[in-house]
Design a protein that fits this description.
Structural class: alpha+beta
Strand order of the largest sheet: 1-8-3-6
Helix content: 40-55%
Order of helices and strands: HEEEEEEHEEHHHHHH
Radius of gyration: 17 Å
Shape: globular
Largest sheet: 4 strands, antiparallel
Length: 173
């Protein structure tokens, strides 16, 4: 949490959740933002009964279905804990009040959204341009902590391949 937000720590609630806890279902309206103190979260979509992981989040990250959180529209994805987590949560209304009271937090939020958009765009183009082996190599190079902490079947899902294909790619390295 940033120093500016420390002024508003009374608005935050501590939440401890075990691994495999669904914090937001796809299609629900996001009313909570999560600040990760400890643990890992993932976002995912359901495609005809198959979970597809779209992002991973770790200590220091803030997570919500930001599109839903800011617009009151149904979320396009779910949020789930992959590890036991300690989270600080803030409600949608309290967060809106903080944004109204602190222009620097609003500016930080805009920068965060821009970074998230650029990362999503980079991932999207990687899916279009690169084969799974190249995507895995990029993941190792840019986010080695993911390889160390995330179960292989979630990494395979994130890369758009089966766990068997990921195993073959890993064995070639």
């Amino acid at each position: 949490m940033t120093e500016e937000l420390d002024k508003f720590k009374h608005l935050f609630n501590r939440l401890e959740v075990p691994a495999k806890t669904t914090l937001l279902q796809e299609g629900e309206i996001s009313k909570t933002m999560f600040f990760i103190e400890k643990g890992c979260l993932r976002t995912w979509i359901n495609n005809d009964g198959v979970d597809i992981t779209t992002q991973f989040f770790f200590e220091g990250d803030r997570v919500s279905s930001i599109e839903s959180f800011m617009t009151d529209q149904p979320s396009l994805y779910g949020i789930e804990s992959l590890e036991p987590c300690i989270l600080q949560t803030i409600s949608q209304q309290d967060f809106q009040n903080v944004l109204a009271d602190l222009p620097e937090i609003k500016e930080e939020m805009h920068k965060h959204l821009l970074r998230r958009f650029l990362n999503s765009q980079k991932t999207f183009y990687s899916y279009l341009k690169n084969n799974p082996q190249k995507r895995y190599a990029e993941l190792i190079e840019e986010h080695p902590h993911i390889i160390q902490r995330i179960p292989q079947h979630y990494i395979a899902s994130y890369l758009g391949i089966t766990p068997v294909s990921l195993s073959r790619i890993r064995n070639r390295r």
